[in-house]
């Protein structure tokens, strides 16, 4: 019982793992890895995109910081030139005139140039509305005089119009220690923001330039509202305000969790010659938002495709494979049972099975013809198996079949049957003298001669073996057989085939003749034996002779060979 149960389970398992299940599994094997590879590729793309964005914006931040430095450097150069003029000239009026005339038009970020005297009041300016203003309380002015070096201020509201501005100062005492004047330049914050334009309008990117106090000096146009506000009031950057401002490093990176709960990467770079810092923040979630949507879509597509492939494989297997196979199998079964006229209906089969159906129908249509051809071929093969290819006569097998047939026929008709055994005289010497090709040619000529005589006498000629031939003569008595034997000997002699080692100088044959009336006590072999004995006697009589050895009836009714 356990073995029967096992076999049943095996049959069920085979059905379960049939062609439908295999096609469905094949579909999944083909599709699922492609979809999973696409999802994995998108995951890799997301990681690379975030890394590339970090690298790109770190480079952009450094580039922007370098451009800010170049702007400040150009301002410093202009201030040093004005300070040198003031130190060289010594007079306020003349140096002011030169300063107004030399304000570079190609430096639009310089809003105005001013000279402040020792009392902290503006003595002259490229903008007359600033003349006389008291700036003695400005920290940058005091620091410039103390350090005797270039100073870049933090965020300011300009007097008297309260517009946002950054001031740059350079003391004349750096050139002439006795001078107490300081040259000032107002820097336009709009131009500093314009330099950061390549950092704006990027999803997930925040970029600002801050001063030493953490106030936003410049920002891209889409974030211009942050200018003038402390960094710790910016929601997404407040978490790193203290670290970015307090760091002594020229540049660096920070990772933090913003107020919205998302992790962000921050890159900062100090603007050379100032306490200002450029800060670029990258929101990984927003940077990779598009690729994240593609990844979710890819997984959804994977699910839908798998379901679709399963259903499609089952339906396709049933309609396109299972049913056509069952139909072809049923047709083949009927054909195998002998319904030779059955044909596969091509119209109801899928296009892929039409060539198979066409081939099957062609096979069925030609099967009868093939069978007839096979019978004919077998007949030809039978004939070929009974023919000696050299002489063109029947071979020994063919001769034996004909002898059996004629023996049975003579036995039924109580008629006589004669046999001539013919041997070429000294044929070995002929071969040794002329060679085997000539020997074959000789046998061919003899075969043609015997075939002609057999046609005239209604006999059957064959090559019994080697140089020995035979001629079977139905309905022929001994006298007529002897005549035909002499006809054979003379015909061969008249061929005049040269044979220098023969006493006759031509090819000759010896003929043994035997004749009998077949009965139940005789066998066909007895006739062959009698003809062989007669042939042996002909050779002993000098060859080129015809000798008969007949049968004699014994007293007990049997037959014996006559000597």
From TrEMBL:
Transmembrane segments: 298-317
A Pfam family hit: GGDEF
Gene3D superfamilies with a match to the protein in the record: 3.30.70.270, 6.10.340.10, PAS domain
GO biological process: cell adhesion involved in single-species biofilm formation; negative regulation of bacterial-type flagellum-dependent cell motility; signal transduction
Any one Gene Ontology molecular-function term assigned to this protein's record: diguanylate cyclase activity
Enzyme Commission number(s) of this protein: 2.7.7.65
Membrane topology: Multi-pass membrane protein
Subcellular location(s) per record: Cell membrane
Domain HAMP: 319-372
Residue intervals of the GGDEF domain: 415-551
Gene Ontology cellular-component annotations: plasma membrane
Keyword Nucleotidyltransferase appears in the UniProt entry: yes
CDD domains per record: GGDEF, HAMP, PDC1_DGC_like, PDC2_HK_sensor
NCBIfam families reported for this sequence: GGDEF
Name assigned to this protein: diguanylate cyclase
């Amino acid at each position: 019982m356990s073995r029967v149960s096992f076999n049943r389970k095996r049959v069920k398992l085979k059905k379960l793992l049939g062609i439908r299940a295999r096609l469905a599994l094949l579909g999944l094997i083909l599709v699922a890895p492609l979809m999973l590879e696409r999802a994995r590729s998108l995951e890799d793309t997301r990681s690379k995109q975030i890394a590339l964005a970090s690298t790109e914006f770190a480079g952009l931040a450094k580039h922007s910081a370098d451009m800010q430095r170049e702007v400040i450097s150009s301002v410093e150069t202009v201030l040093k030139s004005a300070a040198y003029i003031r130190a060289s000239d010594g007079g306020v009026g003349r140096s002011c005139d030169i300063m107004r005339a030399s304000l570079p038009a190609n430096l639009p970020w310089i809003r105005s140039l001013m000279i402040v005297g020792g009392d902290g009041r503006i003595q002259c300016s490229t903008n007359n509305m600033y003349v006389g203003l008291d700036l003695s309380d400005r920290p940058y002015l005091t620091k410039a005089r103390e350090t005797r070096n270039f100073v870049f201020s933090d965020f300011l509201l300009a007097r008297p119009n309260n517009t946002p501005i950054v001031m740059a100062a350079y003391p004349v005492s750096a050139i002439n220690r006795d001078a107490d004047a300081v040259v000032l330049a107002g820097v336009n914050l709009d131009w500093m923001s314009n330099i950061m334009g390549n950092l704006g309008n990027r999803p997930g990117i925040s970029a600002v330039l801050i001063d030493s106090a953490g106030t936003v000096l410049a920002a891209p146009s889409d974030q211009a509202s942050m200018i003038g506000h402390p960094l710790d009031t910016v929601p997404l950057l407040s978490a790193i305000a203290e670290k970015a401002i307090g760091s002594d490093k020229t540049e660096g990176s920070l990772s933090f969790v913003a107020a919205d709960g998302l992790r962000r990467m921050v890159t900062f770079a100090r603007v050379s010659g100032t306490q200002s810092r450029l800060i670029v923040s990258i929101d990984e979630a927003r940077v990779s938002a598009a690729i994240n949507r593609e990844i979710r879509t890819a997984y959804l597509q994977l699910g839908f495709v798998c379901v679709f492939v399963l259903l499609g494989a089952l339906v396709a297997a049933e309609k396109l494979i299972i049913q056509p196979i069952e139909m072809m199998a049923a047709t083949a079964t009927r054909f195998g049972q002998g319904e030779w006229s059955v044909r596969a209906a091509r119209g109801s089969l899928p296009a892929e099975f039409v060539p198979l159906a066409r081939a099957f129908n062609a096979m069925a249509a030609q099967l009868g013809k093939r069978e007839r051809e096979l019978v004919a071929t077998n007949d030809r093969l039978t004939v070929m198996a009974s023919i000696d290819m050299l002489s063109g006569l029947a071979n020994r097998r063919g001769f034996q079949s004909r002898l059996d047939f004629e023996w049975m026929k003579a036995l039924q008709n109580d008629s006589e049957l004669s046999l001539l055994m013919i041997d070429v005289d000294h044929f070995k010497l002929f071969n040794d003298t002329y060679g085997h090709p000539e020997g074959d040619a000789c046998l061919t000529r003899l075969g043609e001669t015997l075939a002609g005589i057999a046609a005239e006498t209604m006999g059957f000629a064959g090559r019994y073996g080697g140089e020995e031939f035979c001629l079977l003569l139905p309905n022929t008595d001994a006298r007529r057989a002897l005549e035909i034997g002499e006809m054979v000997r003379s015909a061969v002699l008249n061929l005049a085939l040269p044979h220098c080692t023969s006493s006759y100088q031509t090819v000759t044959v010896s003929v043994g003749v035997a004749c009998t009336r077949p009965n139940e006590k005789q066998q066909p072999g007895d006739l062959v034996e009698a003809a062989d004995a007669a042939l042996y006697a002909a050779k002993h009589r000098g060859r080129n002779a015809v000798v008969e050895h007949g049968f004699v009836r014994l007293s007990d009714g049997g037959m014996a060979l006559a000597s």
